[in-house]
Give the backbone structure.
Amino acid sequence: MLKKNLLLVLVLFSIFLTGSTNEAEETVFLLGSFENPIIDSDMTYEEAFFGLSAQCPPHIRERQRLITVKYYSFDGKVHQGQLVIDMDLIDDIEFAFSEALKEKFSIHSVIPISHSNFRWNDNLSMTANNTSAFNYRMIAGTQTLSMHARGRAVDINPVQNPYIRGNVRLPANSTYNPNTIGTLTNDNIIVKSLVSRGWTWGGNWTALKDYQHLEKN
């Protein structure tokens, strides 16, 4: 009788272990999946604003929010990054990124420009093909504040979507080819999503082309 009871206990224990193992296996997700994305940026709010120009007015900084977004990167895997954006535009940005995720539109990286790789330097961020939004700075080649200075603009995949004015092309390692992955066009899901919500795309400007740039007044 004792042997039978002991055998029964062993069988039940074995079933318990097997069930636990299967349950554990079901909760493991591959790195680069929606449930377990590759983390490109995991900053705190303080880190996202570290080194910000003292010239930035408090009322502008106070409107900025640090948000998390998911996207397919150029490796075909789901990544997770962050953007600093004006609080009124959070819903627009989250909508556009969710639509881009559904269509698997490739975005290289999304990291706040305060990161140690950039230190608020737009040229470094563009050259690294990084997507960013808030940056208290002037429009390139002018003394006029950029819409980025108010957190009301986003630059996406600058290497595939350059700023072009005459003989100036930024970043220097960029090329615009509508057939290349990561390139914005009027038919692109991000452009369509944001334009439908009142945004302007720099690819439609006539005096210059800023293919990476979308903004909303």
